[in-house]
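Translate sequence into C-alpha coordinates.
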Amino acid sequence: MRLLMTADAVGGVWQYATDLARGLVDHDVKTTLAVVGPAPTVRALEQAVVIPGSRVVITGLPLDWTADSPAEVAKAGRAVADLARSERADLVHCNSPALAADARFSVPLLATCHSCVATWWHAVRGGPLPQDFAWRTRLVSRGYARADALTAPTAAFARMTASVYGIGEPEVVPNGRRARALPAVPEAAKFVFTAGRLWDEGKNLSMLDRAAARLNLPVIAAGPLEGPNRTAMSLANLRTLGCLDDDEIGEWLARRPIFASVPRYEPFGLAVLEAAQAGCALVLSDIPTLRELWDGAALFVDPDDDAALADTLQALSDDRARRSALEAAAKERAHGYTVEAMAAGMHRIYEAVLAGEAARAREAVA
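Result follows.
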Protein backbone atom coordinates (compact mmCIF):
# COMPACT_ATOMS: atom_id res chain seq x y z
CA MET A 1 0.00 0.00 0.00
CA ARG A 2 1.25 3.49 -0.87
CA LEU A 3 0.03 6.09 1.62
CA LEU A 4 0.25 9.87 1.49
CA MET A 5 -0.11 11.33 4.98
CA THR A 6 -0.15 15.01 5.88
CA ALA A 7 1.65 16.14 9.01
CA ASP A 8 2.76 19.32 10.73
CA ALA A 9 5.69 19.92 13.05
CA VAL A 10 3.98 22.39 15.40
CA GLY A 11 2.59 19.94 17.97
CA GLY A 12 1.97 16.28 18.63
CA VAL A 13 0.84 15.50 15.08
CA TRP A 14 4.48 15.19 14.03
CA GLN A 15 5.17 12.49 16.63
CA TYR A 16 1.86 10.83 15.75
CA ALA A 17 2.59 10.78 12.01
CA THR A 18 6.17 9.59 12.25
CA ASP A 19 5.37 6.89 14.80
CA LEU A 20 2.43 5.74 12.70
CA ALA A 21 4.55 5.63 9.53
CA ARG A 22 7.12 3.56 11.40
CA GLY A 23 4.46 1.19 12.74
CA LEU A 24 2.87 0.78 9.31
CA VAL A 25 6.12 -0.66 7.94
CA ASP A 26 5.11 -3.97 9.54
CA HIS A 27 1.92 -3.86 7.43
CA ASP A 28 3.82 -3.32 4.15
CA VAL A 29 2.74 0.32 3.89
CA LYS A 30 5.10 2.84 2.30
CA THR A 31 4.37 6.36 3.53
CA THR A 32 5.04 9.75 2.01
CA LEU A 33 4.83 12.40 4.74
CA ALA A 34 3.64 15.71 3.31
CA VAL A 35 4.67 18.38 5.83
CA VAL A 36 2.49 21.50 5.96
CA GLY A 37 3.31 24.54 8.06
CA PRO A 38 6.80 25.25 9.47
CA ALA A 39 9.46 22.70 8.59
CA PRO A 40 10.57 20.20 11.26
CA THR A 41 13.88 20.70 13.04
CA VAL A 42 16.89 19.04 11.48
CA ARG A 43 16.91 16.45 14.30
CA ALA A 44 13.22 15.62 13.85
CA LEU A 45 13.71 15.32 10.10
CA GLU A 46 16.67 12.99 10.53
CA GLN A 47 14.52 10.67 12.67
CA ALA A 48 11.75 10.62 10.05
CA VAL A 49 13.80 9.95 6.94
CA VAL A 50 15.20 6.69 8.32
CA ILE A 51 11.75 5.05 8.39
CA PRO A 52 11.99 2.19 5.85
CA GLY A 53 10.08 2.86 2.62
CA SER A 54 9.10 6.38 3.63
CA ARG A 55 10.00 9.80 2.37
CA VAL A 56 9.35 13.32 3.61
CA VAL A 57 8.18 16.18 1.40
CA ILE A 58 8.45 19.69 2.87
CA THR A 59 5.61 21.41 1.01
CA GLY A 60 5.91 24.95 2.37
CA LEU A 61 2.10 25.06 2.45
CA PRO A 62 0.27 26.86 5.29
CA LEU A 63 -1.52 25.17 8.16
CA ASP A 64 -5.26 25.66 8.02
CA TRP A 65 -5.35 27.30 11.47
CA THR A 66 -2.60 29.81 10.63
CA ALA A 67 -3.66 30.62 7.05
CA ASP A 68 -4.97 34.13 6.41
CA SER A 69 -7.87 33.16 4.16
CA PRO A 70 -9.97 30.23 2.87
CA ALA A 71 -8.29 30.67 -0.51
CA GLU A 72 -4.89 29.83 1.02
CA VAL A 73 -6.27 26.62 2.52
CA ALA A 74 -7.99 25.67 -0.74
CA LYS A 75 -4.74 26.19 -2.66
CA ALA A 76 -2.86 24.07 -0.13
CA GLY A 77 -5.47 21.31 -0.39
CA ARG A 78 -5.19 21.22 -4.18
CA ALA A 79 -1.40 21.00 -3.90
CA VAL A 80 -1.70 18.02 -1.53
CA ALA A 81 -4.11 16.32 -3.95
CA ASP A 82 -1.63 16.89 -6.80
CA LEU A 83 1.15 15.44 -4.65
CA ALA A 84 -0.95 12.34 -3.93
CA ARG A 85 -1.37 11.80 -7.67
CA SER A 86 2.32 12.30 -8.40
CA GLU A 87 3.23 9.88 -5.60
CA ARG A 88 0.72 7.35 -7.00
CA ALA A 89 -0.80 7.00 -3.55
CA ASP A 90 -3.47 4.37 -2.97
CA LEU A 91 -4.91 6.30 -0.01
CA VAL A 92 -4.58 9.74 1.58
CA HIS A 93 -4.53 10.15 5.36
CA CYS A 94 -5.21 13.78 6.17
CA ASN A 95 -4.23 15.01 9.62
CA SER A 96 -5.46 18.52 8.67
CA PRO A 97 -9.00 17.77 7.43
CA ALA A 98 -9.63 21.36 6.29
CA LEU A 99 -7.22 20.69 3.43
CA ALA A 100 -9.85 18.35 1.96
CA ALA A 101 -12.61 20.97 1.95
CA ASP A 102 -12.14 22.09 -1.66
CA ALA A 103 -9.65 19.57 -3.03
CA ARG A 104 -10.48 16.68 -5.34
CA PHE A 105 -8.60 13.55 -4.42
CA SER A 106 -8.41 10.76 -6.95
CA VAL A 107 -8.09 8.09 -4.24
CA PRO A 108 -9.97 7.40 -0.99
CA LEU A 109 -9.44 9.80 1.88
CA LEU A 110 -9.25 9.19 5.62
CA ALA A 111 -9.17 12.12 8.05
CA THR A 112 -8.11 12.07 11.69
CA CYS A 113 -9.74 14.47 14.14
CA HIS A 114 -6.75 15.55 16.24
CA SER A 115 -8.07 18.97 17.23
CA CYS A 116 -9.77 21.98 15.66
CA VAL A 117 -10.59 25.58 16.49
CA ALA A 118 -14.30 24.81 17.01
CA THR A 119 -13.82 22.13 19.67
CA TRP A 120 -10.98 24.20 21.20
CA TRP A 121 -13.31 27.21 21.48
CA HIS A 122 -16.09 25.04 22.91
CA ALA A 123 -13.78 23.75 25.68
CA VAL A 124 -11.73 26.86 26.41
CA ARG A 125 -13.93 29.91 25.79
CA GLY A 126 -17.50 28.91 24.93
CA GLY A 127 -20.17 30.97 23.18
CA PRO A 128 -20.43 31.92 19.48
CA LEU A 129 -17.33 31.41 17.35
CA PRO A 130 -15.45 34.56 16.33
CA GLN A 131 -15.41 35.23 12.58
CA ASP A 132 -11.79 34.11 12.23
CA PHE A 133 -12.72 30.73 13.74
CA ALA A 134 -16.05 30.41 11.94
CA TRP A 135 -14.66 30.19 8.40
CA ARG A 136 -11.97 27.72 9.52
CA THR A 137 -14.68 25.60 11.13
CA ARG A 138 -16.66 25.56 7.89
CA LEU A 139 -13.59 24.26 6.06
CA VAL A 140 -13.05 21.52 8.63
CA SER A 141 -16.72 20.56 8.38
CA ARG A 142 -16.48 20.24 4.58
CA GLY A 143 -13.28 18.25 4.94
CA TYR A 144 -14.99 15.83 7.31
CA ALA A 145 -17.89 15.47 4.85
CA ARG A 146 -15.51 14.58 1.99
CA ALA A 147 -13.63 11.93 3.97
CA ASP A 148 -14.41 8.26 3.41
CA ALA A 149 -13.65 7.61 7.09
CA LEU A 150 -12.97 9.64 10.22
CA THR A 151 -10.95 8.62 13.26
CA ALA A 152 -10.32 10.20 16.67
CA PRO A 153 -7.82 9.29 19.42
CA THR A 154 -10.35 9.04 22.27
CA ALA A 155 -14.04 8.27 22.57
CA ALA A 156 -14.59 11.50 24.53
CA PHE A 157 -13.11 13.59 21.73
CA ALA A 158 -15.07 11.60 19.13
CA ARG A 159 -18.27 12.54 21.01
CA MET A 160 -17.24 16.18 21.24
CA THR A 161 -16.43 16.30 17.52
CA ALA A 162 -19.73 14.66 16.60
CA SER A 163 -21.65 17.10 18.80
CA VAL A 164 -19.93 20.26 17.55
CA TYR A 165 -20.14 19.32 13.86
CA GLY A 166 -23.43 17.43 13.85
CA ILE A 167 -21.91 14.27 12.37
CA GLY A 168 -21.62 10.62 13.31
CA GLU A 169 -18.94 9.75 15.82
CA PRO A 170 -15.49 9.08 14.31
CA GLU A 171 -14.01 5.64 14.86
CA VAL A 172 -11.66 5.56 17.85
CA VAL A 173 -8.04 4.51 17.40
CA PRO A 174 -5.99 5.52 20.47
CA ASN A 175 -2.66 7.17 19.81
CA GLY A 176 0.52 5.30 20.57
CA ARG A 177 4.04 6.46 21.24
CA ARG A 178 7.36 4.77 20.78
CA ALA A 179 8.79 4.26 24.28
CA ARG A 180 12.35 5.37 24.85
CA ALA A 181 15.00 3.31 26.61
CA LEU A 182 15.76 5.51 29.60
CA PRO A 183 18.38 5.02 32.32
CA ALA A 184 17.07 3.79 35.65
CA VAL A 185 17.32 6.16 38.60
CA PRO A 186 17.23 4.95 42.22
CA GLU A 187 14.82 7.63 43.43
CA ALA A 188 12.30 9.94 41.77
CA ALA A 189 13.34 13.57 41.49
CA LYS A 190 11.77 16.26 43.69
CA PHE A 191 10.37 18.58 41.06
CA VAL A 192 7.33 18.99 38.83
CA PHE A 193 7.66 18.85 35.06
CA THR A 194 5.40 19.62 32.11
CA ALA A 195 5.90 19.84 28.37
CA GLY A 196 3.94 20.96 25.34
CA ARG A 197 2.77 24.07 23.52
CA LEU A 198 3.09 26.46 26.44
CA TRP A 199 1.61 29.33 24.41
CA ASP A 200 -1.69 27.53 23.84
CA GLU A 201 -4.39 28.89 26.16
CA GLY A 202 -6.08 25.49 26.07
CA LYS A 203 -3.07 23.96 27.85
CA ASN A 204 -3.93 26.14 30.88
CA LEU A 205 -0.30 26.85 31.83
CA SER A 206 -1.39 29.99 33.67
CA MET A 207 -3.06 27.76 36.30
CA LEU A 208 0.11 25.71 36.78
CA ASP A 209 2.05 28.97 36.99
CA ARG A 210 -0.22 30.19 39.81
CA ALA A 211 0.07 26.84 41.61
CA ALA A 212 3.87 27.01 41.35
CA ALA A 213 3.87 30.16 43.48
CA ARG A 214 2.35 28.11 46.34
CA LEU A 215 4.90 25.26 46.20
CA ASN A 216 8.33 24.68 47.67
CA LEU A 217 9.06 22.48 44.66
CA PRO A 218 10.58 23.66 41.37
CA VAL A 219 8.11 23.53 38.47
CA ILE A 220 9.85 23.18 35.11
CA ALA A 221 8.23 23.54 31.68
CA ALA A 222 9.55 22.57 28.25
CA GLY A 223 8.08 23.93 25.06
CA PRO A 224 7.59 27.11 23.05
CA LEU A 225 6.15 30.23 24.66
CA GLU A 226 5.18 31.72 21.30
CA GLY A 227 3.01 30.05 18.65
CA PRO A 228 2.98 30.29 14.86
CA ASN A 229 -0.29 32.24 15.08
CA ARG A 230 1.51 35.00 17.06
CA THR A 231 0.01 33.86 20.37
CA ALA A 232 2.37 34.19 23.36
CA MET A 233 2.33 33.15 27.01
CA SER A 234 4.05 34.92 29.91
CA LEU A 235 4.84 32.79 32.98
CA ALA A 236 6.17 34.27 36.22
CA ASN A 237 6.76 31.22 38.44
CA LEU A 238 7.73 28.37 36.11
CA ARG A 239 11.27 27.66 35.04
CA THR A 240 10.98 27.47 31.25
CA LEU A 241 13.43 25.52 29.10
CA GLY A 242 12.28 26.52 25.63
CA CYS A 243 11.93 23.99 22.82
CA LEU A 244 13.61 20.64 23.46
CA ASP A 245 13.93 17.68 21.11
CA ASP A 246 12.66 14.21 21.97
CA ASP A 247 15.98 13.07 23.43
CA GLU A 248 16.25 16.14 25.66
CA ILE A 249 12.70 15.65 26.91
CA GLY A 250 13.60 12.04 27.60
CA GLU A 251 16.53 13.13 29.77
CA TRP A 252 14.20 15.16 31.98
CA LEU A 253 11.56 12.42 32.17
CA ALA A 254 14.20 9.82 33.03
CA ARG A 255 14.59 11.53 36.42
CA ARG A 256 10.93 10.64 37.13
CA PRO A 257 9.56 14.02 38.21
CA ILE A 258 5.89 14.44 38.96
CA PHE A 259 4.35 15.20 35.59
CA ALA A 260 1.58 17.80 35.63
CA SER A 261 -0.79 18.45 32.74
CA VAL A 262 -3.87 20.53 33.52
CA PRO A 263 -5.41 21.54 30.18
CA ARG A 264 -8.96 22.63 29.54
CA TYR A 265 -8.70 21.06 26.08
CA GLU A 266 -6.72 17.93 25.27
CA PRO A 267 -7.94 15.45 22.64
CA PHE A 268 -5.29 12.90 23.71
CA GLY A 269 -2.02 14.20 25.21
CA LEU A 270 1.10 12.51 23.87
CA ALA A 271 3.28 14.30 26.44
CA VAL A 272 1.30 12.62 29.23
CA LEU A 273 1.84 9.23 27.58
CA GLU A 274 5.58 9.85 27.29
CA ALA A 275 5.74 10.75 30.97
CA ALA A 276 3.81 7.62 31.92
CA GLN A 277 6.11 5.46 29.80
CA ALA A 278 9.04 6.96 31.72
CA GLY A 279 7.44 6.00 35.05
CA CYS A 280 6.39 9.46 36.21
CA ALA A 281 3.49 9.96 38.58
CA LEU A 282 0.73 11.92 36.83
CA VAL A 283 -1.36 14.86 38.06
CA LEU A 284 -3.95 15.77 35.43
CA SER A 285 -6.93 18.04 34.93
CA ASP A 286 -10.27 16.35 35.36
CA ILE A 287 -11.56 16.52 31.78
CA PRO A 288 -13.31 13.65 29.92
CA THR A 289 -10.46 12.71 27.57
CA LEU A 290 -7.83 12.42 30.30
CA ARG A 291 -10.25 10.56 32.59
CA GLU A 292 -10.91 8.09 29.80
CA LEU A 293 -7.23 7.39 29.30
CA TRP A 294 -5.79 7.58 32.83
CA ASP A 295 -8.58 7.01 35.37
CA GLY A 296 -7.12 4.86 38.15
CA ALA A 297 -3.54 5.67 37.09
CA ALA A 298 -3.33 9.39 37.94
CA LEU A 299 -4.55 12.06 40.32
CA PHE A 300 -7.10 14.53 38.93
CA VAL A 301 -7.79 18.16 39.79
CA ASP A 302 -10.31 20.77 38.71
CA PRO A 303 -8.68 22.84 35.92
CA ASP A 304 -9.94 26.02 37.62
CA ASP A 305 -8.55 25.31 41.11
CA ASP A 306 -4.86 26.25 41.37
CA ALA A 307 -4.93 25.89 45.18
CA ALA A 308 -6.09 22.27 44.88
CA LEU A 309 -3.43 21.65 42.24
CA ALA A 310 -0.71 23.01 44.52
CA ASP A 311 -1.97 20.94 47.47
CA THR A 312 -2.09 17.78 45.33
CA LEU A 313 1.42 18.25 43.95
CA GLN A 314 2.92 19.04 47.35
CA ALA A 315 1.19 16.13 49.09
CA LEU A 316 2.25 13.70 46.37
CA SER A 317 5.85 14.88 46.54
CA ASP A 318 5.83 14.31 50.32
CA ASP A 319 4.21 10.83 50.17
CA ARG A 320 6.81 8.45 48.75
CA ALA A 321 4.60 5.34 48.93
CA ARG A 322 1.67 6.94 47.12
CA ARG A 323 3.96 8.42 44.51
CA SER A 324 5.59 5.03 43.85
CA ALA A 325 2.18 3.42 43.44
CA LEU A 326 1.11 6.07 40.94
CA GLU A 327 4.36 5.73 39.00
CA ALA A 328 3.77 2.00 38.61
CA ALA A 329 0.11 2.48 37.68
CA ALA A 330 0.92 5.06 35.00
CA LYS A 331 3.62 2.90 33.47
CA GLU A 332 1.33 -0.12 33.41
CA ARG A 333 -1.47 1.87 31.76
CA ALA A 334 0.96 3.22 29.15
CA HIS A 335 1.62 -0.34 27.95
CA GLY A 336 -1.83 -0.26 26.34
CA TYR A 337 -1.04 2.74 24.13
CA THR A 338 1.56 1.37 21.74
CA VAL A 339 2.60 2.28 18.22
CA GLU A 340 1.90 -1.31 17.19
CA ALA A 341 -1.72 -1.14 18.38
CA MET A 342 -2.21 2.26 16.74
CA ALA A 343 -0.76 1.08 13.43
CA ALA A 344 -2.84 -2.12 13.46
CA GLY A 345 -6.02 -0.13 14.14
CA MET A 346 -5.33 2.40 11.40
CA HIS A 347 -4.32 -0.29 8.90
CA ARG A 348 -7.59 -2.11 9.51
CA ILE A 349 -9.50 1.07 8.65
CA TYR A 350 -7.32 1.75 5.60
CA GLU A 351 -8.11 -1.72 4.26
CA ALA A 352 -11.83 -1.28 4.93
CA VAL A 353 -11.85 2.04 3.07
CA LEU A 354 -9.99 0.58 0.10
CA ALA A 355 -12.26 -2.49 0.06
CA GLY A 356 -15.29 -0.21 -0.03
CA GLU A 357 -13.80 1.78 -2.93
CA ALA A 358 -13.10 -1.44 -4.84
CA ALA A 359 -16.66 -2.66 -4.26
CA ARG A 360 -18.07 0.64 -5.55
CA ALA A 361 -15.87 0.39 -8.65
CA ARG A 362 -17.12 -3.12 -9.38
CA GLU A 363 -20.73 -1.97 -9.00
CA ALA A 364 -20.12 0.92 -11.40
CA VAL A 365 -18.71 -1.45 -14.04
CA ALA A 366 -21.59 -3.89 -13.58
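Note: Residues 1 and 29 are 5 Å apart (CA to CA).
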